[in-house]
Each structure stands twice: as C-alpha cells, then as structure tokens.
Amino acid sequence: MASSPKTKRAASNQDRIRSLLGQYGIGIVLIIMMIVIAIMEPRFMTPGNIINVATQISINGLLCYGLCLCITTGGIDLTVGAQLALTSCIIGQTMTNMQWPAFLSILAGVGVATLFGFIDGLLIAKFNMFPFVVTLSMQLVIRGLSQVITGGRAVMLTNDWFTGIYSNKLMGIPMPIIIFVVVTIIMYLMLHWTKFGRYIFAVGGNVNAAIASGVSRFWVIVGVYTISGVLAGLASMIYTSKTGSAQSNIGVGYETDAIAAAVLGGTSFAGGIATIPGCVLGIFIIGLIYNGMNMIGVSSYYQSIVKGLIIIGAVMLDMVMNRNKH
Amino acid sequence: MKKTVLMGVLGAAMALMICGSAFAEDTTEVPAEGVTYEADVNGDGKIVVGYISKNFTDPFHAPINARAQEYFDQAVKDGVIDEWTGLLDGETDANKQIDRAADCISKQCDIVIFLPAEAEASDPALVQMADAGILVIEVNSKSASCDEKAIAYVGSDDVEAGNMLAQWVVDNCPDGGKFIHCNGILGNSAQIQRTEGMHEIMDQHPEFEMVGDFDTKWDGNLAADAASDSMSKYGDELVAIICDNDGMSSAAQKMCNDNGREDIICIGVDGVEVPLQMVQDGSMKATILQDGVGQINGAISIVESLVKGEAFDPAPVIPFVLVTQDNVADYIQ
Which domains does chain A have, with CATH numbers? Predict the structure, then answer.
C-alpha cells in the first residue's frame, strides 16, 4: 500500500529530528547540566559567570580542535600538554630574558610548536609509525627541551601588551573568547566546507578508498598534526598571558580534557566522524564541569570522581538518545 | 630510506649514550687522595654520593638542584668525595624515586640526599637504601619512616607555613570575610601540612568563612580559574585566596588584579621568581619564602661533616620567611 504524502512528510520530519539529535544530542546534555547547576546555584547563570566560563574554556578549546582533527584521521596527538610548556618557555625566554618584541616571541613560540606538529605528522605519515607511539615519545622530547630552555625555572612576563591578551577586552568581549570564536569559525569552514576537510574525513573513514580516489594521505596527516601544533602554540600563548609566568611544568595532563571534549562532541576514535559544533558543545561541557563544581562548592576530594562520572554519563545519555545511529 | 633514517636515529641515540657515559667516567677518574673517611660505609675505599631529586620541572626545585649540581661537581673535582650520581630525576613520582634508590644501591652509594615526592609512597625508597646501609639525608619533606631510617632531615615545617599564610590573611583583613583555599596535589605531604597549618589559625577566627576548597593541583591556571569563579560567585564578599604554593597565588592575584580586585589578598608558599617579582613591583602584597637553597646547603654541610668524621645536627630546621616589599630585595635574584 502506497503511503500518503502526509505520512511521508511526517516520516521525513522524524528523520530530520533524529538526524539533528544524532549530531547534536550532546547539546541536550549541556542544557540539562546548565539547568541543574543553575537550580543549585542561581549565580551560575549571571552574564558575568557565563563570560567567565567562555573565557576559561578557550585554552582547552584550541587544544580540542587539534585533537579532533588528529582523531578524525584515526590518530591521536599526545604532545599538546608538552607543547603548552615549550611554547610558554620560548615566549618567556625570548620576551623577558632576550628582550624580543612580544609579537616576535609569540611568533617564535607558536612557530616551534608548529614545527614539532609538522615533525609528528612527518614521522607518522612518511614512516607509518603509530601516532600514539610518535606523540608519546615526542612529548618527552618537547618537555625535555622546555626544561633545557628554562633550566626548570619560572620566567615572569611583564610585557603589558602580552599579559593583556588574556585580560583585555574588545567591545566588552574578553580577547580569549574572540580568539576562540575566530579559530572556531576557521576550523568549521576548513573541516566542513573545504576539500582538505573532506580529505580528512576520507582518510579517517577509509584510507584505502581515499588513496584510490587520489587523496594524498601524506599531506592530510602532516597537515592535521601541523594544525594541532599551531593550535597548541596559540593555546599556550593564552595560558602564559593568563598566569603571567612561563615554566616547563605546565600543561601536564591537559591532553586528557581536550580528548574528553572531542569525544563528548561526537568525534569517533574509529576515525572519519567529527563535527566542529559538536566539539564546541564538548568543550563547554568540560568547562561547565569545572566551573559548575566550583560554583556549587563540590569538595576538592570529590571533584575528580564527579568529573569522570559526568563524562561517562553524558556519553551514555548521548548514546541512549541516538540509539539508532549507534 | 626508512632503514637509513632508523639507523641514523639509533646511531644518534647511541652517540648520546656514549657521550653521557664518557662524562660519567670523567667523574670517577678523580682520585680519593688515599684518604679513608668514616662515611665510606661499604668499605670500598670510595665515597660515593647519590642525589634523588623531587623533580626537574618545578621552579622551586630548580635552584635546589642547581646548587647540588654545582657543589658536588666541585666536590668531586676537589677530591672531597670520589663520585656522585649526578642529579637523578624523581619526576615527582614515588615509583620513579624507588627505582632511583635501587640505582643508588647498585652504584654502591655511601650517602644519598633524598627529596621525597610523597610521604608514604616514596618511603620504600628510603627504607631500601637505609637497609642497604646507605646514609640517607632527607631534604625538603619527610617520608613516613624518616625519623627511624634517615640519619638526618633538613627542611622546614610546612604546618608553620600554613600558620603564616593564615596569619597574614587575618592580619590584613581585620573585618574578616569569605576566602577560598587552592590545594596542591591532594595527598602530597606539603599540601596536607600547609592545609593543616592554615586551619589551625583560620578555625579560630569565626569572622572568616572558607567558601571554596579547590583541587588546583599546584597549577596556576586552575588557581586563576578558581579565583575568577569565586569572584563571579561572591563578588565583594571575597577577601582572600590562600594557596598551597605561590605559583598559584601569583596567578590568582593576577586574575584578581586584571578584574580590578587588587584588594583581594592572595598568598602562597615557596618564593619562586614570579611571585617575588610581583611583590617587588607591588602587584602582590606578600609571599612566604621556603628557603630551598638553604635546605640543600644544610644537607651539604652534613655530607661535609660525615666526610670529615665530625658530629652534626641531625634535624636542622630552615625557617620560612614572610617576604613583603620591605625585605623582598634580600631574596630576589
């Protein structure tokens, strides 16, 4: 029996809703979290605190985008925490101890992070080495280099322009939010609107098919790890500006939050699946976990447990809501 | 191509190892000048000193390690001792420190300077060295069986540091108010004792209310976030931020100052470069200096006494110092 146009339209609407839920169901988790925290602590929803959260998530946000690209190609980048330390040390050493102009110091720091990202990509793509092994080893090299540069000492940053990167505002909006939004737009356009973005999905989804279709696996892999390096360098610039101090022991374990945000946002470890809007939601969830626990006043002894359980719960809820897709 | 690169990488690694061992051999060639010291516990005719650091990455430990390196390199050259292990990296990890302790036993060390990462978890390192007959001097913090197994402890009283943190807040906020506490890594002995010391004083002052006890892991970034969250929540009611170290207090103070809240008192412990400079330029009122170099100098002086067969004080206490604008010039490098 042929279905009526009305029935077809209803089925199509259902598919559309299911598809939207599939892609952005984690957004509902975010909204639930916001409501729960706001009920427990009404001051959570003040504009000041919302801007505060958006400012705080910028560092993890930039790291998350880099991880998202690497994971989408079927890899991982474990160097991002160490990259934070190295870029910070280079910026501190050149700006404070060698009196370089702030812009040049940033360029040097981000440039070195980019170079290490490129080397990671080169080792993975050229020699077919496992991304986990390459980046695990490389983070030791990078962390060691940052110790050599500073001798383990902290370097103070006094340049007002540089320290203002975190605290200054443009039309009332803190600079880290502006940087984060600009990077988000660039990443969205790159991943979802360009040929390079489609190649990333192709390499992660089915590398043999991608190669057969004429995609250069080498340049895609090198490209995503280099971009991850650039983003880690920029994140370090914000971090160093925020604390006003460059030191080699920062960023330990920061890759964990970045990976968690990417995975919460729907990035698949199987490769080939990711969305930038999904990552944005994941980044906000991670930021809200920290901010929400601080606002509610969860004891520090329980914060780690709560964080882990919320991540597991959010992913499970997402899976339940999108049962068909999974 | 792959093989060539692989050979190149392995070759470079081997060359580095050979260079490293060549440097190590240089130190062993220095003669003991035929003098037998009481410190030669294993009777092999050589005085070998080990040094197990807490880590190489923390700015507080950098000058401690640098001082040890400078002294023992010179001591070997001068023939005061025969060998030393160089700086062994404990990586702030009890497991790694226990491994380094085994290395010291294998190297037949007579004396080991040990900076425990953890009170309980690092203790097996001390126990196995002491059981092997090594004279262990603990520095900076005590492991669980320090009083029974180590021959000396040179350090500061972290409970006293906690008292000083709280007293500074009490003295500078006479009307009381809300404050938050930023912890080091939970379970670390310095975190536990400084927190204990802080509570000893603050609990006697009902005009103060602790409204947040954050797991900030010695991390300035997390302390800055805790500061901005608390300013957002409590506004003008927030009067102070007490931190277990001053890497966190300086980051928290910068966050407060950037938000026009220079009135919030932020204070922490250690006296590393950045907080000292902030005290000097007036952007932070005070910090508590832990004299790390003084602590390692105390340990060095015990090693010298052992080598000479002289008596020494087994528990010298290096006091914490409140650093304000009045005396910061004495401590800043």
Answer: 54-318 (1.10.3470)
